[in-house]
TrEMBL record:
It comes from Streptomyces catenulae. InterPro entries: Gfo/Idh/MocA-like_OxRdtase_N (IPR000683), Gfo/Idh/MocA_oxidoreduct (IPR051317), NAD(P)-bd_dom_sf (IPR036291). The lineage of its organism: Bacteria, Bacillati, Actinomycetota, Actinomycetes, Kitasatosporales. Residues 4-124 form the Gfo/Idh/MocA-like oxidoreductase N-terminal domain. It comes from the Bacteria. This is Gfo/Idh/MocA family oxidoreductase.
Amino acid sequence: MHRIRVGVLGCGMIAQLMHLPYLTALRERFDVTAVCDRSFDLAEAVAQRFRVPRVYASLPEMLDGSPEIDAVAVLNADHVEPVLLSLRRSKHVFTEKPLGYTVAETEEVAAAGDAAGVTVMVGYMKRYDSGVRRGLAEIARLTRPLAARLEIVVGPDYGNWIIPELARIVRSPQPPPGSDTRRERVRQEIPGSRDAALETYMDMFGVWSHDINLLRAAFPASPDSIKAHASEDGTLLTASLRWADGPQCTFLGASTALHRFEESLTVWGEDRTVRLDVSNPFLRDAPSTVRIWRDEPAAGPGAPRGGAVEEVVTGAHDEAFRAQWEHFHECVTTGRRPLTDARGAVLDTRLMRDIVRATEH
């Protein structure tokens, strides 16, 4: 099997907790050649922990010092510029979500990926969860979807409260240098946006982008009408979406003080109801669950109606983070287009932007 040589940008929590453990475990598919981080001491500690031979302080240094790298894993906070630089060097790219924070920059990345002729895959790992795949398949079987409800409610620190309970994460003793320009870029694309809407977008899009992508997987067309409201502190957003020839959907996204993770998509159809409960992504190998409610047909003419049936389907105990890396390997080595590609990420960003814009009315 062909081994892909990977350079990793960003050595923070998600790299240590999920990506590097699976990349190094999938040694028949990947060779982690180098890591880099603006906090060089952090990069050195992570390289030692995962036995990565080369360490750099920046992406340009890594690309210059290890030109044999086939692919770059972009796991830092702001993804657009590193992805574009990697594409200019003709490297395949796996990037954490969201791909970008504005429609303009995600469109730029998608166009650059097409021009480079390489794989660009966005890390919506929940789409590779076997339970999520089954749930989406069951939703696709509905005769006619009528209504949907999408909910994501996480605990303190936008759901990251659970991390210290799961693993020891190495942190840099000093904050890395550099400025974060994401907020200003969003202001330029959504001029005049209220502070509440901007806070919601900036603080929660990293979490909610999974759910926006899941909603688009269930209903690919763009909604015809969006109405939305955001709390002043940016921790709560509700939206109502309507498709002219499809269902109406309510969306609730929130971060609360309760140490609990809730994420679900329920779709009511004419013939059955499907509910997908998504497992906490930080709990390895935890399966997602699908519930299906339907009526049995009557036994025959004149017979009483059939019974009401509830089916519970539990996904396999496979890890979605691992599955997405296996998919990335397949795409790079065969030329297959990723299930979660850059073009899809453009549509995700556009829908989230439009939801935030709707809070202004």
